[in-house]
Amino acid sequence: MNRIILSIFAVGLCFSVGQALQCFKCDICILNLFQTKVTCNAEEQCFSGVGKAGKVMEINTKGCLNRNNCNKVTETTFSSMSNTTVYSVNKTCCSSDLCNAAPGLPRMSILHLALATTFMTKVLV
């Protein structure tokens, strides 16, 4: 009888551990170089946030976010040594492991590659 109870407990523990959502996290993502992986709480989902600071510089952020705050625009304050900037961030959520991954790097077309090769050949020769 004890083995049955222990087996049920072990299976339940495996399912509860398997439910944890893994997400990428970076407070200010620059080329997605400094992002880490985090485990969200039960009431959280992965999110990607995009905003503009001073209507010029794009700010990206990622992490875990409470489901009640998903798919909303929020005001965020970014402080540096010289000034404080307030910007709006649109936070979009998703609910599968690492779903807030970085988009792929822009791909060069064959035409761009041929032009770059031609230019470099003329410069180096």
Description:
The protein is of the alpha+beta class and 125 residues long. It has one domain (21-124): CD59. The chain contains two helices and six strands. It has helices at 2-18, 110-124, and strands at residues 22-25, 36-39, 44-53, 57-66, 72-79, 84-94. A four-stranded antiparallel β-sheet has the order 4-3-6-5, with no helix packed on it. Strands 1-2 form a two-stranded antiparallel sheet. A hairpin with a 3-residue loop joins strand 3 and strand 4. The longest helix is centred in the first third of the chain and has 17 residues, at 2-18. The chain is globular. It starts with a helix and ends with a helix.
Describe the protein's topology.
Blueprint: H1 2-18, E1 22-25, E2 36-39, E3 44-53, E4 57-66, E5 72-79, E6 84-94, H2 110-124
Antiparallel strand pairs: 1-2, 3-4, 3-6, 5-6
Concise description?
This is Sperm acrosome membrane-associated protein 4. The protein has two helices and six strands; from the N terminus they run αββββββα.
Structural class: alpha+beta
Amino- and carboxy-terminal Cα gap: 82 Å
Overall structural domain count: 1
Structure annotation, total helices: 2
- Give me the CATH superfamily: CD59
User: Which CATH class applies here?
Assistant: Mainly Beta
Helix content: 25-40%
Radius of gyration computed on alpha carbons:
22 Å
